[in-house]
Amino acid sequence: MRDQLTVAGFSCRLNDLSSTVVLERPMDDSFIKRWQLACEEDIAHVVVMPNVTRHKIDRFVEELSDVGKKFGRTKPLHPDSPLIKLASSSWSGAVVSPSRR
Asked: Does the structure show a pLDDT above 60 at 20?
């Protein structure tokens, strides 16, 4: 999921030794509710459990891309926001820089 989100241009990180992917918070509340995302300020996270198929990940990334096009992208809420930390080395976990579209 992290790799596909990165290719789609989203800021995200995979926590070390876990299946939790942290990403920028989507701007559409119905998307957040449908996918049951846990959100805090300007970030969200997804726990990718064994029942999550590649097809479901593909669908999630596709729908998230559509949400980004329709509603825009999350901006950091303040200079010390979680979204800013997501892209910095202060956040543990494997990071891949997104290629913004």
From this structure: yes
User: Is the entire prediction scored with pTM above 0.85?
Assistant: no
In a domain, 73, yes or no: yes
The CA distances from residue 30 to 6, 18, 27, in Å, are: 22, 27, 9
95 within domain boundaries: no
Asked if residue 12 is part of any domain, the answer here is yes
Q: Give CA–CA dist 3/17, Å, rounded.
A: 16
* Per-residue pLDDT tens over the stretch 44-94: 999 999 999 999 999 999 999 999 999 999 888 898 889 988 877 656 555
Are 15 and 2 in contact by the 8 Å Cβ rule? The answer is no
Residue 35 falls inside a structural domain:
yes
